[in-house]
Amino acid sequence: MNNTKTALIIIDMINDFQFNHGNMLAEQAQVVAANILKLKQFLTTKGVPTIYVNDHYRLWKADLDKIISYCTNETSRSILEQIQPTEKDYFLIKPKHSIFYGTALNMLLAELEIETLILCGIAGNICVLFSANDAYMREYNLIIPSDCIASNVAEDNEFALKMMRNVLKANTLPHKEYMK
Amino acid sequence: MNNTKTALIIIDMINDFQFNHGNMLAEQAQVVAANILKLKQFLTTKGVPTIYVNDHYRLWKADLDKIISYCTNETSRSILEQIQPTEKDYFLIKPKHSIFYGTALNMLLAELEIETLILCGIAGNICVLFSANDAYMREYNLIIPSDCIASNVAEDNEFALKMMRNVLKANTLPHKEYMK
Amino acid sequence: MNNTKTALIIIDMINDFQFNHGNMLAEQAQVVAANILKLKQFLTTKGVPTIYVNDHYRLWKADLDKIISYCTNETSRSILEQIQPTEKDYFLIKPKHSIFYGTALNMLLAELEIETLILCGIAGNICVLFSANDAYMREYNLIIPSDCIASNVAEDNEFALKMMRNVLKANTLPHKEYMK
Amino acid sequence: MNNTKTALIIIDMINDFQFNHGNMLAEQAQVVAANILKLKQFLTTKGVPTIYVNDHYRLWKADLDKIISYCTNETSRSILEQIQPTEKDYFLIKPKHSIFYGTALNMLLAELEIETLILCGIAGNICVLFSANDAYMREYNLIIPSDCIASNVAEDNEFALKMMRNVLKANTLPHKEYMK
Q1: Which fold has domain C3-179?
Q2: Nearest CA to CA, how far is B65 from chain A (Å)?
Q3: D80 phi and psi, to 5 degrees?
Q4: By the CB < 8 Å criterion, does C61 face chain A?
Q5: What's the confidence (pLDDT) of residue D64?
Q6: How far is CA A29 from the centre of its chain?
Q7: Chains with 3 or more CB pairs under 8 A to chain C
Q8: Residue B48 has what pLDDT?
Q9: Contact present, C147 and C174 (Cβ < 8 Å)
Q10: What is the DSSP string of A25-91?
Q11: Cβ–Cβ gap B60/D104 under 8 Å
Q12: What InterPro entries does the annotation carry (chains A, B, C, D) (predicted)?
């Protein structure tokens, strides 16, 4: 992994979990958040930038405080406390599933001269999967650590990982493998 | 189904099947081609336009004759003979997985005032699935007849159908249900 | 003008004017800011939403306070005090000339069911002109009040207005004509 | 000029000139066509690819023969005979003003590893100007030979050239300067 050309992308982890099976996803998101955090801390020491791309919760503003305040509830609180962006991280909103659709991400990545994306976050079979395809169509290399994404249903998560590995040529080892 | 606002989209059926498991996909594509053809003939009588969106086979030209000639071989011949576009159909090339990425499809659909897309073609778990998400992000209603798409592996096809039904709100009955 | 389908777009008025001829543009921007403000206040009473789309000053964040703080200086202060967004306004960043390129504007406009854009701001012959063409290609009707845009050089502003009128079919009367 | 990273783009020269002042533009297009042809022949010997990006005349097909047939008339014939694409050239259709909007151009340029675009064609103050801005926003270097574009009105052509030079950093010498 060429650290100077790599970015860590954290998808929809600032989340209110107010949807069908939200509780189920929140439980897994706890584990995933801890893994992402460790990976992020390691990568930060290597100079890899972190970019949050997150649902805007119909606020249509990339105002982090408002989005966190909107999302904070009993289910989400402990996750949000762990995973929220620091001053140094980038924070973009996305209005739809894909991190590229209606966002400045592609331009930011060009400015940072990024060639490889490490995708983490939720849901693995929705926003992560469709974002991964959009990244693939734009010729980025993909790393999607298997224990840094989660989906409502375990089987769907496995399927998404298989698709990203086979169709989108993603590297999908557990996060510790990328901390070397 | 409001016929006046619906378009039939046929994805990558002009295909050379020269890839891993291409023979397996070709076998299923035979069945699918017959179903698509029946659906297309019915919809044509109702005034529904048909739009082919197809891989360009690195010719970078929407020159139908060249693409058919390039794709024709023992495996593909009988499929191509069945399914190829008529003079009245639209024919667009796509350079990547999605029917929207790097194509004029969205503008053509706006000009035709289309709100509902019927997606057919191959591979169900790749180009159809990712195109369906791009259509969903652009607010189109989706119909994806379950017996008009195919994937290398049956299980992958089933999974893609489930995803499109649950996540992208697609209607996925067999094609005969849309011939009423 | 159908108010329920119209949005007011304010382009790059949160500005530091730190560029060639910035002082010249700032002088005109004073006048323009006063006109935009009057128009905005009128349109707000009619239920027309206001959307700021603004350069991000390489902060890559739609954090209004940070951008205002970054932009505030002797030249800009009185303009910024007049024209800054209220809590009710939308605020998007754009990384390049066009208000559509790398932004969620098109999706926001779809959600608000907007068909007509009133474009105001600076520079008339750069970001306003190129944004107007992107709006035209997306089939929006255009109103560009002649006294609500400014360019470094008066001649360039006139030319841009003429182009937008002739090529992009924009309506370009003075702002008072749209306060009826 | 680094020939290996340069592409020649010919905009809307396959034209029926059936619009307001079409005859005026056709007259100038004669001269421009001759210049473009000389430049194209020179650049071809240097290995520079030529990409036509052309209005689709509502045929929604990149079928060169049909478009030429549609466009051929008394006014256009001698221009079309001079300037039409050879087998080796790329030919893309565009549905709107910009060569990038709703086209695969950006992907084709990425595949060819192009960094510099030489833009030629008509109309200089419309499709060429707006395409140039879209190229600039995508970080391409621009060469726009001053005698290889034309607009209905000479003054508008001059203005577009000035804008492209000053705002989009285009190099705008006469075509002979790029034949060295």
Answers
A1: Rossmann fold (3.40.50)
A2: 26
A3: -60, -40
A4: yes
A5: 87
A6: 11
A7: A, D
A8: 97
A9: yes
A10: HHHHHHHHHHHHHHHHHHHHHTT--EEEEEE-TT--S--HHHHHHHH-STTTHHHHHHH---TTSEE
A11: yes
A12: Isochorismatase-like_dom, Isochorismatase-like_hydrls, Isochorismatase-like_sf
Give rounded-to-5 percent helix, strand, coil for chain D: 45, 15, 35
| Minimal CA separation from A146 to chain C, in Å | 29
**Strand duo C141-143 + B6-11: pairing:** unpaired
Q: Which two tokens stand for residue A76?
A: 């989400």
Report the complex ipTM: 0.94
Residue ranges of domains in chain D: 3-179
Task: Please report, in tens digits, the pLDDT of each residue of chain A (180 residues total).
Answer: 677 899 999 999 999 999 888 988 999 999 999 999 999 999 999 999 999 999 999 888 768 888 999 999 999 999 999 999 999 999 999 999 999 999 999 999 999 999 999 999 999 999 999 999 999 999 999 999 999 999 999 999 999 999 999 999 999 999 999 998
* Whole-number pLDDT of residue D100: 98
Site from D133, D136, D152, D155 to mutate, C interface, most C CB atoms within 10 angstroms: D133
Q: Give percent of chain C with pLDDT exceeding 70.
A: 99
> From the list B63, B104, B108, which residue is nearest D103 (CB)?
B104
Residues in chain D: 180
Cβ of residue A104 closer than 8 Å to a chain C Cβ: yes
**Cα→Cα distances B162→B144, B156, B157, D65, Å:** 11, 10, 9, 43
DSSP letter (8 states) at residue D126: I
Q: Which residues face B52 on adjacent strands? A: B10, B91
Distance CA D69, CA D77 (A): 10
DSSP element (H, E) containing D120: strand D116-122
User: For A137, which of B98, B136, B159 is closest by C-beta distance?
Assistant: B98
Q: Does B96 touch chain A (CB under 8 A)?
A: yes
Rounded to 10 degrees, what is the CA torsion of B137, B138, B143, B146?
-40
Q: Which pair of structure tokens corresponds to residue D145? A: 């030979």
